[in-house]
Amino acid sequence: MTKFHSPDPRLLQQLDLEEEEEQDYFDYFYDKPGSEPGTLNIEPDAKPSRIVLIDYDETHAIRKVDVTPKALIPYLGSNTISWMDVQGLGSETILKQVGRIFKLHPLLLEDVVNVPQRPKVEDYNEQLMIIAQMVFSQPDEEGFHSEQVGFVLGKSYLLTFQEEQIEDCFDIVRNRIHANQGKVRQTGPDYLTYLLLDSIIDGYFPVLEKYGDRIETLEDQLVLRPQSSYLEEIYTVRRELLALRRAIWPLRNVTDLLVRGESSLIHPEIKIYFRDCYDHVIQLLDIVETYRELASSLMDVYLSSMSNKMNEVMQVLTVISTIFIPLTFIAGVYGMNFEDMPELSWPWGYEACLGLMFIIASSLVFFFWRRGWFNSFYSFKKD
Amino acid sequence: MTKFHSPDPRLLQQLDLEEEEEQDYFDYFYDKPGSEPGTLNIEPDAKPSRIVLIDYDETHAIRKVDVTPKALIPYLGSNTISWMDVQGLGSETILKQVGRIFKLHPLLLEDVVNVPQRPKVEDYNEQLMIIAQMVFSQPDEEGFHSEQVGFVLGKSYLLTFQEEQIEDCFDIVRNRIHANQGKVRQTGPDYLTYLLLDSIIDGYFPVLEKYGDRIETLEDQLVLRPQSSYLEEIYTVRRELLALRRAIWPLRNVTDLLVRGESSLIHPEIKIYFRDCYDHVIQLLDIVETYRELASSLMDVYLSSMSNKMNEVMQVLTVISTIFIPLTFIAGVYGMNFEDMPELSWPWGYEACLGLMFIIASSLVFFFWRRGWFNSFYSFKKD
Amino acid sequence: MTKFHSPDPRLLQQLDLEEEEEQDYFDYFYDKPGSEPGTLNIEPDAKPSRIVLIDYDETHAIRKVDVTPKALIPYLGSNTISWMDVQGLGSETILKQVGRIFKLHPLLLEDVVNVPQRPKVEDYNEQLMIIAQMVFSQPDEEGFHSEQVGFVLGKSYLLTFQEEQIEDCFDIVRNRIHANQGKVRQTGPDYLTYLLLDSIIDGYFPVLEKYGDRIETLEDQLVLRPQSSYLEEIYTVRRELLALRRAIWPLRNVTDLLVRGESSLIHPEIKIYFRDCYDHVIQLLDIVETYRELASSLMDVYLSSMSNKMNEVMQVLTVISTIFIPLTFIAGVYGMNFEDMPELSWPWGYEACLGLMFIIASSLVFFFWRRGWFNSFYSFKKD
Amino acid sequence: MTKFHSPDPRLLQQLDLEEEEEQDYFDYFYDKPGSEPGTLNIEPDAKPSRIVLIDYDETHAIRKVDVTPKALIPYLGSNTISWMDVQGLGSETILKQVGRIFKLHPLLLEDVVNVPQRPKVEDYNEQLMIIAQMVFSQPDEEGFHSEQVGFVLGKSYLLTFQEEQIEDCFDIVRNRIHANQGKVRQTGPDYLTYLLLDSIIDGYFPVLEKYGDRIETLEDQLVLRPQSSYLEEIYTVRRELLALRRAIWPLRNVTDLLVRGESSLIHPEIKIYFRDCYDHVIQLLDIVETYRELASSLMDVYLSSMSNKMNEVMQVLTVISTIFIPLTFIAGVYGMNFEDMPELSWPWGYEACLGLMFIIASSLVFFFWRRGWFNSFYSFKKD
Amino acid sequence: MTKFHSPDPRLLQQLDLEEEEEQDYFDYFYDKPGSEPGTLNIEPDAKPSRIVLIDYDETHAIRKVDVTPKALIPYLGSNTISWMDVQGLGSETILKQVGRIFKLHPLLLEDVVNVPQRPKVEDYNEQLMIIAQMVFSQPDEEGFHSEQVGFVLGKSYLLTFQEEQIEDCFDIVRNRIHANQGKVRQTGPDYLTYLLLDSIIDGYFPVLEKYGDRIETLEDQLVLRPQSSYLEEIYTVRRELLALRRAIWPLRNVTDLLVRGESSLIHPEIKIYFRDCYDHVIQLLDIVETYRELASSLMDVYLSSMSNKMNEVMQVLTVISTIFIPLTFIAGVYGMNFEDMPELSWPWGYEACLGLMFIIASSLVFFFWRRGWFNSFYSFKKD
Fold first, then answer.
1. Is residue B152 within 8 Å of residue B118, measured between CB atoms?
2. Cα-flanking dihedrals φ and ψ of residue B336, to 5°?
């Protein structure tokens, strides 16, 4: 019998899977208390690291895949602009070599490698580190995935760290460099940083749009037919919007600091572009807060709908009970077996009794109809 | 039978239409992630662009309709003040020509063309860009429409971008220029900007007033007769007030920056007028926040009314049940067929039994009357 | 029959009246979109304007009623201090003449004439404009009235604009000038401004005190006997406190700016007095926020009381039903007409049956009594 | 009969008393609108004023009770430090004399005499005024009392104004001066101000601790046995915590201004001590906000408990009704008097009928037991 | 019988124990009002103090246990870096001796000894005091413990005060000094402070993670099977997260002041490390606020689930009652004993009556099935 009380193990297993996924939304990486600052934490299931180099100036653009860290050294001091893209955070030796070659501060390396971190920008004088969370979601799935992208902006290079190789939006930028579209080849690594950061930020819009659609759908369904399964859906939407807000909110600070910051690594002319990023982040925050407020009003609507439904159920019960209980009582009276009940032998006694019942029932029906309680019966028709 | 469970397709279709309209309230335009900054997005259903030129100084005022972008060049360097009004954002070539002639920054052109954007003001040194949302609503419809207006203020010209030609309030300003009313002909394009921005801001008041009326009506109706259909109306009002607040809130920043900003394009004497705009925006925010708070208390009132109604329903059920259930039991006892039931053959047995029932019923009626439960019966009379 | 469903027209009419009054609490004046800045809006039912002049210095004080605007000119440049009080905003010519004589900025004149405006202070270099809302309420009425007072402080004069003649608290100041009480005759128009503004601010305290009393009364009544009529009262109190907060909140800014402002029209020594005004406004805000929080907790108490009441109703129903339903079933069993029911012919069958019923009823009574459900019956006694 | 509907007059009287006490928590003193600034308001029931003088330096310390204001004059210009403690605010002449002798600004005198005022600090150049609210509560009573203490700190003296003579914590400071404990005799009146203000602030902790205990008790009781009487208790706790927050919140500003203020009357070395006061006020705020949040969650717990209880009541009713109603129907069918009912004459008809009833009852019991509804019956056992 | 009404004494005792533990979460230490500033408060059950000295520079590192305060004097002026760790706050003489030797300000000594204090940082010119709360929890227990750690950072030494000897994370740092791992031996006492503070901050993450898990579990359980026992669990989680937030929130200020502070005791190069601490605190705050919001939505989910459950209970009752009450009435009618009831003697009267009942029952079943009320019966299957 206990199987009725304990939840189905398969259901729980499924929940466990979901749980792990949900975990992703809200955890940050943290060091073991007391551990050495700058310790790199290589996850067992992290992808092995590989480096993709793109070196360009106004006249040329080359691309090299699977470059060793040492092979990057010549590009460090050159006049051309180099974008070194470290894909996968699973090879400690490669990451440490990169750290040594680029003279990365141990805390900087820790932040780009030990994912996820809170988005932030930090100025290490010779280098500017930017941490951002990229989000994306498959068209056919609910929820979203997020992945950390770390930027290290130097005088003539940009170093990026990704958890795994993201083809989609970064590829568009890569192609633009090769095709010499736009002004990317005429400008420095700061403009390249802007292009990549902007494509990360623009990636939030389609994800948020899906939540807008889910809220619309929920809203329509709640008004048409409130059901308890919507409760869980509302909760999930609120939870995931909370997770999105957590990712977007610190981006506001990041882009604000890039616009107002004093770093010499960002050319004043490029700051206008980061101001554009900042505007987009403000728009995102505006949307996410609006959706959160809508989702929260949906909960109110749900609760009120449930309360309405209960009211209607109660009215049906009350109308039926109140009409029949007095009638049943009268029937009971004349079902008594007293020897001397004069009404029983009256000539039209039975008909008079039925008539009395009819009058009582009619009065009650009229009473309830006047008060509009029969609407509870009609209102179900709309379902 | 499934047609009872699945919602009516016509109803859904109607909801779809509504959905699209609702979509308008909350979405912002966003670039495809990775796209080139400054890409213009021409909606297929956008109106073709046409340019209306008004050129004036203290002594003359001319108006030209359907001017080509090239024809604007002579007016750029002249001493007179020119208002170039681009109506419709559907012609990419015209928009790009305008961008080249006025040397608009690609990001500026993107912001005025790719609608809707969040209201903002941005200083491009030689030009000041202002984005605002104009709202209006027909007297006989619920909800409201919004449309973006982009301003580019130069030294001797004002360039405006509208989604479509808005006759109403801009025409009043146009007529005032021709009739040489007020001080518009004696002042520069900054005063003209003020006149147009002020008429946009003043346009929010009648829209908000309609929501004030809807809240009043809801409030009166809720107190008179709570019904479940009001729930949806409250939700809609809250949702649309949220949308209005989203449009007004950034206007606060816009007008504040115009008052405090360092831009040389706005004459200090004209800043007093923008301070007036700022005051109006603060008044709007004050009203919208007040209405939002009232709408939110309405939800409380609605929930409490429903809870009251349920209480009354329950009291009716309880009073009727509690009175008749014991009586029915007594009738049941004397309806039993035991052979030896002495009461049945008592001479006044039946009358004694009826008397007992009467005493019990009276006691219960008295009990409930003393506790005021019969008010539930009376209170329905008010409906 | 429809008269039961549609609300009583007299009730609606009464609501309409109330509605208009409520309207007053939340609307601001706004220009017709596109109208000329500085347009005066004369309400048809506005009182005709009349000017009361009080001119004084340390040695003399004169008072002139119904002065024409032109007659004010000599007092403008004199060394004495002049208080020109414009009562009633219904005469456009008089108001425009005053505007010309005092060289009022069109926007300033608009703000003091087109009522109501949000309280504010604005510095026009030669003049300081202050807008405030005065509130008052008759001892025997609920709610409150509010009226705008506009101050224009010049070097040697104070110009005030009132919607109608307010005798009460301004008269006390007038009398003090004539009686040469306090230091008003030894100081400039800034001290006079302080006196009038302080009397406006102090006027909020008795109005707020009435709401404190209403909340106390509601609180006592809710605990003694929750009734659905209190719901509307709580809503009204919340609504009116919201209106009061809207009037007081901007006064905080006004008084703060008067204390910290750079205007040369306020003598540093007098700023100590405005600091006192500021303290009073902070106290008002503190009270109004406290009352709002109390009113909001009252709603919680009301909802909980209703929920308690429903619980008690349900317990009464459940106790009565649960006791009698099984008994009625037993009576029903022995009322069946089967030919062969051995119990019916048992010698003590009837008595045994009654005994069984008694045992069942006693067990259930004991069960419910142990659980304290009979408290629901007793608890009504307290009502 | 009306005595059931109108509340017991003794109860109301008791409520009136309570009301007055509650009034104390939330009102501020306010001037009659239009009254002269600096008017002293002597309450009829105020204690007569008496002055206690303590004069000390490193080498001596004297104490004089019931000193006349004039007798204070010699101590004003002396090199010793004088603490003049005005106890009781009922004697207008004494208070005015003190005002003249110490050259107190009329607004300053008004603030220390017209109680209660909002805590604040104000710098009158030669004097620093501090207003604070002291709270205390008897061990055996609920709620707390509050009393205003006004400090006027001069170059060589400290003037304090109390509503009545408070022996407890000020006496400890007095004794410390006489016993020359600590560094009080080696420092100026600023350190004395610190000692007194710190003892006022420390006095809030035991009062708050009582509320912590009340919340703990409520929490335990709510979980064990939810009762409607706790609702009032929760409301009272929330109300009184709101009152405490109102007293503590402005103290934050007061102590912050004392630490950061530019006044020359506070020696920089003593500011470290006021920083300690500031820390204590922050701790108080932290505690009071935490308690407020706990009290507010308690309301949620209470509402949920009530909802649980109702659920259980409904389940009992539903289980009993659903089991017996079909059985009673069957009994009713075989109680019908049709002439030709074949089952009635079946040999085992009665036994078959009882068997059918048993099967139906068992199925329903099994159905409900499987769904765990009998827990509602068991769960009452915990009460 | 009273034992049913009064809670079980053993249960109360258990609650008392819990209460004391809960007390820990929310109280601060406070002085007896009026007491001497700088008074040390030695708890009777405090551990006796012992001092552990670690002295090191780049070339050596020694460790001495149970050092007397006097033995610390030679290390004060030396060039080596000394970490004096005072474990246990129970020996007043040792603590006072340490105060004298290190010339600690009385308020500083009070803050590190009288635990718990609110986390803070205070600059005493020659010394920098930091107060922090360390939290930890055993793997198998719910809740957490917290303990104060006080730091006094001097030019060449670090003095720490702990309530009791904490081995875990401080030992890792001790071992790193001895093993000369990392850069701790090459840097000053400011870096040591960073290492210890960072390990305290990192200690919050695993504690918070446990709450994340508890929320996940609650969430899954609530959706599967809402039960009243979860209410208490939600309340406990909210309460403990509130306590954690109270400990973390002031750490934000502490780390921010260490990064931005002007103190010469922290080398600018080390500030980058404290910036890392600050980032971790922001992450903690972010997590704790997210969890608090999730816990608060859980309450909504719980309330909605309860309301759903009630709806289902009511539907079961209404369906059963509404079907059988009319049938029972019909049976009652034909159980009446009127002499002349024609239907009773109809040939197929009984069968017609049963047929009528069947038709009525079928219609009602169809009516309820169409409205989906039988889902309430099915939905229980999921439990």
1. no
2. -70, 155
Contact B340, C352 (CB under 8 A): no
C253: exposed, middle or buried (Cβ count in 10 Å: 0-12, 13-18, 19+): middle
Decide: helix, strand or coil at residue B224. helix
Q: How far apart are CA A186 and CA A204, in angstroms?
A: 28
pLDDT, tens only, A90-118: 999 999 999 999 999 999 999 999 988 99
The interface residues of chain B toward chain A in range 343-372, judged by CB-CB distance below 8 A, are 343-345, 347, 349-350, 353-354, 357
User: A370 and C335: CB-CB below 8 Å?
Assistant: no
Q: Which of B224, B380, B307, D300 is nearest to A307 (CA)?
A: B307
Nearest one of E346, D143, C43, A321 to B318, comparing CA atoms: A321
Phi, psi of D84 (to 5 degrees): -100, 115
- Interchain CB contact of A10 with D (< 8 Å): no
Number of CB atoms found within 10 A of residue E175's CB: 11
DSSP SS3 for E260: helix
CB-hemisphere CA count at 13 Å for D275? 15
Say which residues have a Cβ less than 8 Å from residue D365's Cβ, sequence separation at least 6: D323
Average pLDDT of chain A is 85
Per residue in D344-356, pLDDT tens? 888 888 999 999 9
Q: A209 Cβ partners below 8 Å, 6+ apart? A: B27
φ/ψ of C119, rounded to 5, equals -55, 135
Residue in the structure block whose two tokens are 């929820």: A143
Could you tell me if A144 and A152 are in contact, meaning their C-beta atoms sit under 8 angstroms apart?
no
Helix axes of D92-101 and D106-113: crossing angle, nearest 10 degrees: 140
Q: Given a cut of 60, is residue E383 above it in pLDDT? A: no
In chain B, % helix, strand, coil (3-state, to 5) comes to 60, 15, 25
At C46, the amino acid letter reads A
Quick check: helix, strand or coil at residue E156? coil
Q: At what angle do helices C268-333 and C349-370 cross, to 10 degrees?
A: 160
Which distant-in-sequence residues (6+ apart) come within 8 Å of B365 by Cβ?
B323
A32 vs A29: CA distance, rounded Å = 10
Tell me the chain C residues in contact with residue B199 when contact means C-beta distances shorter than 8 Å.
33-34
Round to whole Å and give the CA distance between C269 and B245: 42
Hey, which residues does D148 pair with through a beta bridge?
D133
Which candidate from C26, C28, C302 shows the least CB-CB separation from B304?
C302
Of E40, C314, C291, B93, the C-alpha closest to D23 is C291
**Beta-sheet pairing, A157-162 with A81-87:** parallel
**Cβ contact A233:E301 at 8 Å:** no
The answer to whether C160 touches C88, Cβ cutoff 8 Å, is: no
Handedness of CA B208, B211, B213, B219 (dihedral sign): negative
Separation in Å, CA of D7 to nearest CA in chain B: 13
pLDDT > 60? residue E376 = yes
Interface predicted TM-score (ipTM) of this complex, two decimals: 0.81
d(CA C283, CA C277): 10
Residue of B134, B47, B44 whose CA lies nearest to B88: B47
Nearest Cβ partner for E321 among A7, A310, A320: A320
Cα Dmax for chain A: 121
Q: Give the amino acid at C203.
A: G
DSSP string for residues in D184-227: GGGS-HHHHHHHHHHHHHHTHHHHHHHHHHHHHHHHHHHHH---
> Counting beta carbons within 10 angstroms of the beta carbon of residue B335, is it exposed (0 to 12), middle (13 to 18) or buried (19 or more)?
buried
- CA-wise closest residue to D133 among D273, D271, D283, D245: D245
The pLDDT assigned to D17 comes to: 46
Both structure tokens of E195: 């290492």
Say how far apart CA B84 and CA B262 lie, in whole Å: 25
The CA distance from C264 to C153, in Å, is: 11
DSSP C174-188: HHHHHHT-TTGGGS-
